[in-house]
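User: Structure please.
Assistant: Input sequence and predicted structure:
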Amino acid sequence: MWLYLLVWSFFLTGLLSAPVTAEEMLPAGVVNVARPNFGDRIGGGADYGLANVKPIEIAQDGMQDREIRIVRTTRDLRLSRRNEARFQVRLGQVESVYFWLEAPLVYGQWHLRILASSFDGTRIPIFEGDVQPEVINFAWSPAGSVLEFHVSSIEQTFKLSKRFLFTVSPARFSLWPKLHPIPHRTYVD
């Protein structure tokens, strides 16, 4: 009987202490539009493809509340053997994006390059530089374009598998102590 109670209590403890998913960490009015399978690597390399089908933007439907659509990876992205990860994010009617990377501090600095691709096939660089984990970055972007992200690690001494989470938002967010995004400022039309 005691063994049964012990096993049942371990089961309940494990169930109640299950990790919080990225969806549950978002505040009210903020929706993650990343595809559910985004981050699954099929085949080799680290080209993750298109992150979202529904574009990121600040949407308002009639008299309802605003909905801030963001792309936030639901699982860790990894760098390839060539020390790079690539993915794309579809934009709606926004002319600027905020983005940040979350990674263990042991991985050091990261390098990020963003290209904006329009429907006619032109690609314009809108950001290139070194970024620190948990620091919010900003870039102007053409509305309705597709952003191509190229993430690489500057730190070459570690042979560890480099993993990171990435968030792209049309509104500025602050990072809370436990990496929970909370709205800092939204735009009013």
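The chain is about 10% helix and 40% strand.
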